[in-house]
Design brief:
single chain; 94 residues; mainly alpha; two-stranded antiparallel sheet; elongated
Length: 94
Amino acid sequence: MAENHETNDQATAVAVDLNTRVSLLEKDNMILRELLWLRHGCSIINLYGDDGEMQCNKCGIDFKRDKPESIKQRFYDLNKPAIIEYLKRTGQAG
């Protein structure tokens, strides 16, 4: 019986540790999203940040809610000519 109790305690400790890690990752994610929102290249006058929002009225990205892949694709769409030129210069163009 004591062995089962120890196993339960260990499982609880692992769950708490995982929850702590997830919480830290979520906080890190929001910090990086905020930095990206502030420094992504559009003028600060286009940024909307009231009530914790992180949106850009110029490029249409919602840095708080959009999935990273969607943000990445929007960056590519907005900067396609510059990206193609960069890939050509660096020999990475297909």
